[in-house]
Write a structure and sequence with these properties.
The longest helix has 24 residues. α1 runs antiparallel to α8, α2 runs parallel beside α8 and α3 runs parallel beside α4. It contains 12 helices and 14 strands. β5, α6 and β6 form a beta-alpha-beta unit. The chain is α/β, with parallel strands linked by helices. The chain has a 7-stranded mixed β-sheet with strand order 1-9-8-6-5-2-4, sandwiched between helices. Strands 10-12-14 form a 3-stranded antiparallel β-sheet, with helices on one face. It has 2 domains: 141 residues, Alpha-Beta Complex (Aspartate Aminotransferase, domain 1); 236 residues, Type I PLP-dependent aspartate aminotransferase-like (Major domain) (Aspartate Aminotransferase, domain 2). It is 36% helix and 13% strand. The structure holds pyridoxal-5'-phosphate.
Length: 398
């Protein structure tokens, strides 16, 4: 149960748990339709041979996503979130007049998933690591203060939280930068009741099995410029703008969504109201419990602005100390936790390679932050067990 690491084992009273029984809680529990719900339509796809290449269900999925987002343009689906981001950045790079071999600086938080920064680097652009504020998202104040001549900002909706979009937008306009959002983890989150795309910014989402809304693998880009929809559709199809010769206007990759993913996505979109509502009730309970621990000085919670609706992919807590003991304790009690997100500027490939602003907040939390499971269909018993386990961890501390 205790780690065999350097820190001394700490005693705790497992008898406090109901009957001393452990309850196994995985880090995520994807919500998928049963095979019976898909059988007929997928059989049709297989029989007709129409399993990919912008077929019927992909188009229908995009239509229904457009209705969900109330977006000006239909979202463009992709095989996953990272490819959606890769191509969104690529499309903007081209629109700004840069060739594939040219480059510019892109402001990005270090506190994100490696995939965000990989998508920048693989577009031959240079990431400049930026700091976050107490919302764990990009800090506009620190960006305003710097004088790096970047052409683009990629903000990230970590854990479904959103940054101060008004302020970021202002800074971006003042400095002549394009503002994009990696909202891979922020499906359903809103800012002032709106999605980033409703405010005129390009954004992407991930529908990976670990995310709150899933098509198994999948992703989409939502953009405000009709022209960019066309570019993105070409990019996911090798860059082909016509099919008779397969002529390309820009080099793309094969990053199309398959019909089976669109089918699963459609079924889950049918119950997105249930998903968001279920999460919202559980989020309320988590916030109340963890704000109580914050008041006792045990940990800190992620700040969510009043005008932000956060759908919470995981529930992050910031401990007062390095997280190894807590992680081992929780794992020992069979509650899976994740050291997520991380500081990308610290990862092996990125270390000391790219420019960085002052990263005080990022460096201050990166080894103390832990993501706890928060499933859409988590039972009361599981939630109580998770809370009790956390309470006992702190109870066992002097
Ligand atoms: C999950 C995630 C991704 C990757 O999305 P995939 O669909 O798995 O490719 C990228 N960025 C962030 C911030 C994420 O949370």
């Amino acid at each position: 149960m205790q780690s065999s690491g350097a820190s001394p084992p700490r005693s705790f009273d497992s008898s406090k748990h109901t009957g001393g029984m452990k309850v196994k809680i995985n880090i995520v529990r994807p919500l998928f339709p049963g095979i019976a719900e898909l059988q007929e339509e997928f059989a049709d796809c297989l029989a007709s041979g129409m399993v990919t290449n912008n077929s019927r269900h992909v188009r229908k999925f995009e239509e229904q996503l457009q209705a969900f987002f109330s977006s000006r343009n239909p979202p463009v689906s992709f095989c996953n979130g990272e490819m959606a981001l890769f191509h969104l950045i690529q499309a903007w790079k081209e629109k700004l007049g840069y060739g594939a071999h040219e480059s510019f600086d892109v402001l990005v938080p270090s506190f994100t998933f490696s995939g965000t920064v990989n998508a920048i680097v693989l577009n031959n652009l240079r990431p400049v690591f930026c700091d976050i504020d107490e919302t764990l998202t990009l800090c506009p104040r620190k960006i305003r203060k710097n004088d790096i001549p970047a052409k683009m900002i990629v903000a990230v909706g970590v854990y479904g939280n959103l940054p101060d979009i008004d302020e970021l937008g202002k800074v971006a306009r003042e400095k002549g930068m394009v503002l994009l959002f990696d909202n891979a983890a922020a499906f359903g989150s809103r800012y002032g009741g709106k999605f980033a795309s409703n405010l005129g910014y390009g954004e992407i989402f991930s529908f990976h099995a670990t995310k709150m809304f899933s098509s198994m693998e999948g992703g989409a880009a939502v953009v405000d410029e009709p022209q960019m929809v066309e570019t993105l559709r070409h990019l996911r199809d090798f860059g082909q703008y016509e099919k008779s010769r397969g002529d390309v206007s820009i080099p793309g990759l094969n990053s199309k969504m398959q019909e089976i993913s669109a089918l699963v996505g459609l079924k889950n979109l049918d119950r997105i109201g249930f998903i968001l509502e279920s999460r919202s009730r559980r989020i309320g309970r988590y916030r109340e419990f963890f704000m109580g621990l914050e008041k006792k000085g045990r940990l800190r919670n992620m700040v969510v602005r009043d005008n932000v609706l956060c759908t919470y992919l995981y529930y992050p807590v910031i401990l007062e100390e390095e997280a190894t003991d807590f992680v081992n304790y929780m794992q020992g009690m069979e509650v899976a936790v994740r050291r997520y997100y991380t500081a990308v500027h610290d990862l092996r490939y990125y270390k000391d390679k790219y420019a960085a602003m002052n990263l005080d907040v990022t460096d201050g939390i990166k080894d103390r932050i832990v993501a706890l499971p928060l499933h859409t269909d988590m039972s009361d018993g599981e939630i109580e067990y998770l809370f009790e386990t956390v309470t006992n961890y702190f109870g066992g501390r002097s």
